[in-house]
Amino acid sequence: MSRGMATANDATSLAEIRQAAEQGDAEAQFNLAEMSYRGKIVPRNYTSAANWFKKAAEQGYAAAQNMLGAMYASGQGVSKDSQQAAIWYQKAAEQGVLEAQTNLGFLYANAEGDLKNEASAYAWYSLAANHGYENAIQGRDLAAEHLTSEQRIQAIIYAAELQARIDNR
To answer: Is pLDDT at 75 greater than 50 in this prediction?
Structure first.
């Protein structure tokens, strides 16, 4: 495909993906959502993307859960809702998705009101940072600046508990 022009093969692939998605295939739902989100083969449509991501996310598809969280965090295709973003990010983060762990850390570090929690931010950032995820390392270090020594120790313990839960899935 060149210059964003769809080909006959793209149309065939799209029809196959759409059919599988409509039949409940989570991977196809995710792929269709990605196409809508990025404007690949189909016109960009955040509402459609959110709907397809949600269908895949509800089936436990971790990448879709992370993307749905991002859409709620930014208000793309859905009403902006930090609580919903946290729910979907956490589902993906608990499946070991490093980007979701980082996104959840960012959300907790930058939220307003009851959702703001620097210790939780530190813990989630730490999980991804321990795997070398660069954005998480920076986020963890920034979150640490807002914690007392005691809070940091508690956050480290919480991170270890989270990692154990993830490992035991």
So the answer is: yes
